[in-house]
Amino acid sequence: MADKFAIITGASTGIGFELATLAAKDGYDLLIVADEMLIVAAADDLRAHGAQVDAVEADLSTTAGVDRLLAAAKGRRIDLLCANAGKGLGHGFLDQSVADWRHVIDTNITGTLYLLQKVLKDMVARDSGKILVTGSIAGFIPGSFQAVYNGTKAFVDNFTDALRNEIKDAKGVTLTTLMPGPVETEFFDRADMNDTSVGADPKKSNPVDVAQDGWDALMDGKASVVSGWKNKIQQAMANVTPAAILAEQHRKMAEPGSATPEALAKAERADH
Question: Which residue in the list 28, 140, 145, 149 is annotated as catalytic?
Fold first, then answer.
């Protein structure tokens, strides 16, 4: 058993899996979680780095799912939490079912806040611990045809800024917000956005690079990090661009059917 213990959510694939890989290489024991059985295979892969890894399949959109995750920690001190679990949802808001948009809100906001509150209380009490929360530059942009998701990330980005100030007297506790742009993960497939311009774009960020940016910022105790120079520019422009223009720009990226045949063909070639 290592003397460092980390919990990483949404760790079956993508950014979460890459964060778990970095933690394993850095000598952490891991408790990883996702809402799919693939988390078991991810745990097997991570053990190849010599880490002790436990996996839990749980729905973190519910307080019961978060409680199940924390129970699996068996009372062990949590030194590091990567709150990375999230859900996307494409298409127009009026076309989305209540169950679907509520699941996005409950996963990205409610479950994340409940987990943070549970873990941070102990960290602040002992004045020790690190947390990385995956936000997004989407939180700076009105997300036409992805409105609920972008709205949840706006909440997360804003909330972590506020929470960071609330716990500033706990000098041994750091809270870092990772804000990537579009990343080459299963996100767009699961959000039914493969026929959109952003979904078909073969130049999305590599999750390995995004995770490394987040990890470096976390270890340096930084407040936040925007991953990728193009996303840094986009964030800066969002601060001075009228919301109506941003919404129209996002529409061109996320409206169903916005991907050109050429872009779809290029994305298909990139997959192979």
Answer: 149
CB 68 within 8 A of CB 58: yes
DSSP SS3 for 102 = helix
Q: What is the pLDDT of residues 117-162, one digit of tens each?
A: 999 999 999 999 999 999 999 999 999 999 999 999 999 999 999 9
Residue range 47-76, pLDDT digits in tens: 999 999 999 999 999 999 999 999 999 999
Q: Which of 62, 52, 38, 59 is nearest to 6 (CA)?
A: 52
- What six digits make up the tokens of 183? 């990343």
Q: Is 149 annotated as catalytic?
A: yes
Position with higher pLDDT, 78 vs 230: 78
> pTM (2 decimals)?
0.90
Q: Give residue 20's region: left, alpha or beta (phi > 0; psi -120 to 50).
A: alpha
Identify which of 147, 110, 113 has the alpha carbon closest to the alpha carbon of residue 133: 113
Q: What would be the CATH architecture of the domain defined by 5-271?
A: 3-Layer(aba) Sandwich (3.40)
Contact present, 227 and 180 (Cβ < 8 Å)? yes
